[in-house]
Each structure stands twice: as structure tokens, then as C-alpha cells.
Design goal:
Blueprint (H helix, E strand, L loop, with lengths): L11 E6 L5 E6 L21 H15 L6 E4 L2 E8 L2 E7 L5 H18 L6 H6 L1 H11 E2 L2 E2 L4 H9 L3 H8 L5 H21 L1
Antiparallel strand pairs: 1-2, 1-5, 3-4, 4-5, 6-7
Helix pairs in contact: 2-4, 2-5, 4-5
């Protein structure tokens, strides 16, 4: 039997609330070369509809709610998870996937969120900072392929402003004279506009 020579390793990444069992962020991935509509191929999305996804998530929350381990086999899939405050972070891979690699992904997500949110990883903070959350997930995983697992690099990529904007900001003179020059320039341009009308 040929081995799976694909970089695709993550079927889903889920961030669910333990209080009200709501979804905070869920992303399901399909392998880029899997036949459409097939659910039993390696890398195919086994939960194509939202109803199936919610049923899977509900069962997963019930199974992992009082678990002491961080790795389980659920519905033929390797699931690694961590609890942070009132949320559960899940990474779901295929049944034959390396659980240590998947565990590295969930730890990278947990640590990157701790850096970005200053150790305040709870439901309210995640919803308020949803942009940072989704960017961090996208920096870690792209279409089911693990890109980065270093939380410091992930958080620096998510929180760093674009470099082209930094150059223009450094050239702005914010001293008193610089502000007076900007005021005079604005008055001059406004006067020119008024004369054109």
C-alpha cells in the first residue's frame, strides 16, 4: 500500500466555548487534490455540511469535557486539544496522522494567543480580538498544511504593521514646528481650493 505523500495533515481547527457550547472559530479543510464529494478519501472533508459539523463538535465537546489526556481518537480521527479558560482549542487530523505534530500545532496556537492577548485567552477576549485570532490560525495552517509552529514568529507576523507604512510614518515631523508647518500647508491648500470655486 503506498504511503500518503501529502503535506495535508489537518482536517479541522476548532475553538469552541465550554460554557454555552458555541462556536468561536471553526475551520474545516479539504485536501486540494481530493475528489469532490468523497468523504472516505484521505484528506477529504468528512463533515461537508454545517449540520454534520455541529453534530461532530457537540459530540467532541461531550467526549473531551472531563478528559485528563490531550489526545483522543474520535470518529476515526486523531483529535488533540487544550483547554484555556472557558474555551477548548482542537486540532483534528486523519486517523493515521502524527499526534505529536498535531499537538505541536495546538500548543503553537495556545502560546501565540497567549502572547497576542497577554495571557487572557477566554471567550470574550477571543471574540473582541477575532481579527488576531483568525490571522494567527491562518499563519499556522493554510488549507490543512502546517506552515509554522513557533508562537513567537506567529505572533510577530500577526501583530507587525506593514513595512511600507513604517517608512512613511518615520518621516513625519511631530515637533511643534512640524505641526505648525502642516497647519500652514493645510491653510494654503484650502485657500487655493476656495479661490478655484
Amino acid at each position: 500500500m503506498p504511503t500518503n505523500m501529502s503535506l495535508f495533515s489537518v482536517n479541522a481547527i476548532l475553538i469552541l466555548s465550554t460554557d454555552d457550547r458555541s462556536r468561536i472559530l471553526t475551520k474545516y479543510y479539504s485536501a486540494p487534490h481530493a475528489p469532490p464529494g468523497s468523504t472516505n478519501q484521505p484528506g477529504a472533508n468528512p463533515y461537508p455540511t454545517v449540520k454534520e459539523q455541529k453534530a461532530f463538535e457537540k459530540g467532541l465537546l461531550e467526549k473531551t469535557n472531563k478528559q485528563t489526556s490531550d489526545v483522543i481518537l474520535y470518529d476515526g480521527r486523531v483529535v488533540v486539544f487544550k483547554m484555556e479558560g472557558d474555551v477548548m482549542l482542537y486540532v483534528v487530523g486523519g486517523g493515521d496522522e502524527n499526534e505529536i505534530m498535531l499537538f505541536g500545532v495546538v500548543l503553537a496556537l495556545r502560546d501565540a494567543l497567549a502572547i497576542l492577548l497577554k495571557n487572557s485567552t477566554d471567550k470574550r477576549t477571543l471574540i473582541e480580538n477575532y481579527d488576531l485570532l483568525s490571522l494567527a490560525v491562518d499563519e499556522i495552517i493554510d488549507d490543512g498544511i502546517i506552515l509554522e509552529t513557533d508562537p513567537v514568529i506567529i505572533s510577530s507576523r500577526v501583530s507587525k504593521p506593514p513595512t511600507q507604512d513604517i517608512a512613511s510614518v518615520k518621516n513625519i515631523d511631530l515637533s511643534e514646528q512640524g505641526l505648525l508647518n502642516a497647519w500652514e500647508f493645510g491653510k494654503l491648500k484650502l485657500a487655493e481650493r476656495m479661490r478655484q470655486l
